Model the fold of this input.
Amino acid sequence: MRTQANRRNWGARLVVLVPYLWLFVFFLVPFVIVLKISLSQTALALPPYMPVFDFAAGWAGLMEFTAQLSADSFRLLSSDAIYLLSYLKSLQIAAISTILLLAIGYPIAYGMARAPRSWQPPLVMAVVLPFWTSFLIRIYAWINILQRDGLLNDVLTRLHAIDAPAAWLSSDTAIYIGILYSYLPFMVLPLYAALEKMDETLLEAAADLGCPRWKTFWLVTLPLSLPGVAAGTLLCFIPIVGEFVIPDLLGGSETMMIGQTLWTEFFSNRDWPVASAIAVSLLGLLLVPILFYERLQQRSLEGSR
Amino acid sequence: MADGGEAAQNNAANEQSPLVRFEAVTKRFGSVAAIESFSLDIAHGEFFALLGPSGCGKTTLLRMLAGFETPTEGRILLDREDIDAVQPHRRPVNMMFQNYALFPHLTVERNIGFGLRQENATRAEISERVTEMLALVRLQGFGRRRIDQLSGGQRQRVALARSLIKRPRVLLLDEPLAALDKKLRAETQFELMELQRRLGTTFVIVTHDQEEAMIVADRIAVMNHGRLMQVATPSEIYERPNSRWVADFIGEVTIVEGRISASGAMDSALGQLRVAGTSGAKSGGTVWLALRPEKIGMSGERPAGELNKVPGTISEIGYRGDISIYKVRLADRSLMKVALANVGVRGNARFKAGDLVWLSWPPDVGVVLDS
Ligand SMILES: Nc1ncnc2c1ncn2[C@@H]1O[C@H](COP(=O)(O)OP(=O)(O)OP(=O)(O)O)[C@@H](O)[C@H]1O
Ligand SMILES: [Mg+2]
Done:
């Protein structure tokens, strides 16, 4: 009996171990490598930085290696305004688009959750349908739509909304359009999941107690959907901050988002240490909202116990 | 003086006119009729029960009264006024939902105070009434708890308090005790009755537990397939059911088929039975005699006296603690149910399966039914 229970215990522990193993291999190890590069210096060599860690040198080698590490790249980041501006630009674009995504996504998710049961699977399908074509192709399609003799200008001039074709491409507007379009499913799906599992008799109970419909939304529906709001916000905000493809293809060249800056450092300047330092700082920056969300979830978990 | 007299007269008229009236109400979902030409009056201050098997339309009836469904045909009057156009949140009716429908993101206090807060009551007033309600349902000290920190019985009390705080004209209770265990349920039934008497509010309770309906209600409406079968006091429903269906639905019963003879007795497969109350039934047509098991006597020898007497063999004994139910096989192979209280320490140990016994009952305990 006892050994059997022990064995089952081991099985349970092994299952718990799998996600940690995953995190270790696919997050922690690469992160440590990037961190190491960020503390190195550029060099005209292969790989283009030094020192390079040599396992064969043993303990003495490790000591020597550690002595050569420096925080120069991080110092550079804080001294040149271009990096700070990139970060701010990224945060600004991510914040504004996340708010817009919420404003657009919530009514869509709400409508889906309140639609007749039999309509809901096709509606969910419709939301994820864009994923069936390549992301790059969809962004190229937007270039087509937004360019000077593109579809958007065509339609707007025919509707007499504008007199002359406007320049949409290579602007922040184009970035926002691309982001809103690409990230909408990531906002809608968690919101839909939260709204869909809400007990509809709660709405009737509120009405029964004298609460008009619009007020029921604020007092019952919205508070109960907050976990969905938090999940959707994180799912959009974090990847948007690091977004590279959309601003690169649709945006202008005045200010770059941090993803573009990183790319430039890495491929144009071949400055791997600075590129790594940008990535490490970005991660530190993004850790704040993630930890905040974790705390929030922890609290709601404890509350529901 | 004259005015006062008139007002008093008006009041009296109000008291007499029903608080709730269903007028030929029909409700169809698509082609399915959940309620069919249903007419019913519920009086002021009554504890009224809607009783019927699952799916007979009890919840639908309550939801129409609360305003969540609109009748396909017919009218519902509250205090003599058609409430068809009144939105749910404006009706002076509150409902305790079948699954309680408590707000999971609010504390007990906030749940109970929810209705008052919609009326723009002052904070002081809300907190006073909430405290009062917590005391009423004996949940003092639970105000700050979250709903998921409560037991099933406590949730049920919160739901009750929440639906009572606005002092509704009618309180609708949809199977309020279904989730409770038997003991707690019995206790709560008496608490509900006491509460209703104290508040004087009209309660309409939905249940498919006939015992519960009989215990708590002043009057019961028995429903089947969306139709009203009988409305009467619990004892009338039990003692004088108006159809075989009602007799069979409420409690245990044995039904004997027969015809009324010219002499007023009933000819059946068990021989000629003396019955009472056949004046309405036309002689010659098929009628049914409904006999409650506890009204039938059982003895080893043929009893004396002006009784209906039939011999039989005990085929099965169901021991229930307080009583035992005996199924007795009669001469025509039919079974008759007899219930005897287990008064002695050893109960009715003298009767065993297979014993030959005599069953007897006075002519007036059976009910003759023609439908
Ligand atoms: N929204 C609806 N759409 C279609 N049919 C419905 C709807 N609501 C109820 N019905 C049908 O109406 C009938 C009565 O339902 P109702 O819920 O009133 O029964 P009930 O007496 O409360 O049953 P229970 O004791 O099981 O709660 C059922 O046949 C049910 O299937
Ligand atoms: Mg029901």
In short: Chain B has two domains: 17-239, 252-369.
